[in-house]
Amino acid sequence: MREVTFLEAIRAALWEEMERDPNVFLIGEDIGRLGGAFGVTHGFLERFGADRVVDAPISETAIIGVAVGAAAMGKRPVAEMQFMDFISCGFDQVVNVAATYRYRSGGSVSLPMVIRGPSGGYVGGSLYHSQQFEAWFFHVPGLKVVQPAFPDDAYGLMKAAIRDNNPVLFFEHKYLYRRIKGLIPQSSDDFIVPLGEARIRRPGQHITVVTYGAMVHFALDAAHQLEAEGISLEVIDLRTIKPLDMETVYNSVRKTSKVLIVYEAPLTGGVGAEIAARIAEHLFEWLDAPIMRVAAKDSFVPFAEPLEKFVLPSVDDIVLAARQLARY
Amino acid sequence: MAIPVVMPELGESIVEGTIVRWLKNEGEMVQEDEPIVEIMTDKVNTELPAPASGILKQILAPANATVRVGQDLAFIEPVGALSETAAAPPPIPETAGFYAPPESETAASPVPEVAPTPTEVPREQRTGVDGRRSGRGVFLSPVVQKIAREHNLSEQELLSIQGTGVGGRITRADVERYLAQRATAPKPAPAPAPQPAPAPTVAAPHEGEEIIPLVGMRKAIAEHLTRSYQTAVHVTTVIQVDVSRLVEFRERNKESFQQQYGVRLTYTPFFIKAAADALLEFPMLNASLVEDQIIVRHYVHMGVAVALGEKGEEGLIVPVIRDAHKKSLIELARELETIAQRARTKSISPAEVQGATFTLTNPGSYGALIGTPLINHPQTAILGTYAIVKMPVVIQDMIAIRPIMHLCLSYDHRLVDGMYAGRFLQRVKRAIEEFEFFR
Known about the structure:
The structure holds 2 protein chains of 2 kinds.
Chain A: E1 2-5, H1 6-20, E2 24-28, H2 44-48, E3 53-55, H3 60-72, E4 76-80, H4 91-98, H5 101-104, E5 114-119, H6 134-138, E6 144-146, H7 151-163, E7 168-173, E8 181-184, E9 199-202, E10 207-211, H8 214-227, E11 233-237, E12 240-242, H9 246-256, E13 259-266, H10 271-283, E14 292-296, H11 305-311, H12 315-327
Parallel strand pairs in A: 2-3, 2-4, 4-5, 5-7, 6-7, 10-11, 10-13, 13-14
Antiparallel strand pairs in A: 1-8, 6-12, 9-11
Chain B: E1 3-6, E2 16-22, E3 29-30, E4 35-40, E5 45-49, E6 54-59, E7 66-68, E8 72-77, H1 142-150, H2 155-159, H3 172-184, H4 216-231, E9 234-242, H5 244-261, H6 268-281, E10 288-290, E11 293-295, E12 302-304, E13 306-307, E14 316-317, E15 320-321, H7 329-344, E16 358-361, E17 381-385, E18 389-395, E19 398-412, H8 418-434
Parallel strand pairs in B: 12-16, 16-17
Antiparallel strand pairs in B: 1-8, 2-4, 2-7, 3-6, 4-5, 6-8, 9-19, 10-11, 12-15, 13-14, 17-19, 18-19
Helix pairs in contact in B: 6-7, 6-8
């Protein structure tokens, strides 16, 4: 085992997959000579050369489009969005081209590609460097969507995403990049975290908290605080948002009968809405309280720190909602 | 089938009550909602209404008996349909209606089968364990209904469980605890045969309404404030206070104060101190008018209003700081924190909420800018401290920005006139503005 930051875990996974499989290559803005805006691909150009670490022009459509074409021809591209906010510029390539490719080709062509990049707030990144766009892609058949919270998951899921034969969107929360450290296995272990499996990060009795990304850490903080009040939260880290591992969620809800869903994106139409709907649909008779959600306000992420804090969900928001549920 | 008269929850902290006297005798006819027994707790005295019309069959708890909340006090045997209920829809047979009885459990769908009968039954009147609401207007969550059905709990048995959720809601944990206890407890007398659902105890509310009986603390507050409002001649005088020095002092010292004395430095102790000192100089505001005598006090027992519940939904209690005029600021801060905490956790004793000679209320804590507090009868005055807000003020013909607070004094005009009240307020204002606290 080695102790690494969240960012280093992703870097290690990319590096090891490129060592393992010559079909894996990277494409993105400033990922070569600069080593990426956050340094995820630092040193890759020197090791793997310009054919496999491609500095692209500032065109997300082109980056994703090239990745689609290469994947269709049997390569395993990993396309970096400098910030996931800008994936909107390549939206058509993702939802109309990449997502539909296998369907359109009658199953004869698969697209083993990854689109990865930093997302999320809490870093003073302001409007275009703070958003959580996972819900847009969550809505689209044919895509897989991943957002890990811990280095070991980031490492194992990135490897799984690269080896998966479908387009995978990999959201890396930039707040976690250098804040969170953890142990990851040695490269010789060939460690993989399968896509589509949630993980109970903290077992509990009273309330099921379903979350992912940076919110996992917030939920764990809240759970720690509430322990003193005798309120026990079971924190489920979804890890993969699409496909959803509802079995893990259902098993927990059957135990607690109370659900709090936490996500960082704006409340309306978020991933939590779908989770709430599925629980209500399948586990109605197991509920002892309304399903609750904590999410960002339906607004944009402001630059000013107090305003950013106001818009985005906080540990306090989770504590308050959980207390309300516990009392209900 | 006899309907139990249960010791109700008379307040969040109250776990038991004492029977003062029965207003009806065994064998007497009682009407639904008619007071039948007087109950005393450490906070309130209240009359308990009959849950149903019928004959008061058996009194289990005689006068002076102390009974825990949720326990049975008596049984009422309903006698047929009474005239009031004649207009109500006929009782719904358990086998009809929107919710299928337990036999149909094989249906896996959580969506209840709709019976072909086109009878329109108002939602509030649906009954039975499978119904959303029981006759007592209790909400049963899906999981509680499911467990009850799986364990063949009768509605009566289910509703006898003391709920610990919001508003006494029966939670999943409550039912599971009950089932565990039932499994270990000796079998009680054979359960009575299935009975028609008990008659609702309150008039069916209209769509979108609910009906809550006025009991416990709310009832005590309602009665007390009505008496105050009808007795005292209320006038309110408002004064503006520049709290620059106070705000600055607090900001500068709150951390060291906390470290040194282990208590949070809030504004309230300053206001208590300023008011208590001023009351010694203006004793008529610290007096009570009792019949044709005025009791003037030369000591100050300061009542401090404390709202209960996150949104103030659990009422209000006024703990008392005794001999506030003799206490230092630190003593006041410390006592205030203790007593307010005890009030919030409902562990305050009756003695600690009695005997105030004057009351301080702080609507500023929820941002109120100005208001007219109601006198806490039989006191003569109440001082409200309102939100501290930065405002433009004119100082030596220049406009300055200062933190300003409104002090609102409501007083009983029978005892106190405007000028006296105004002078008192000036005295409090001076104490706060000139910051005389540490002399």
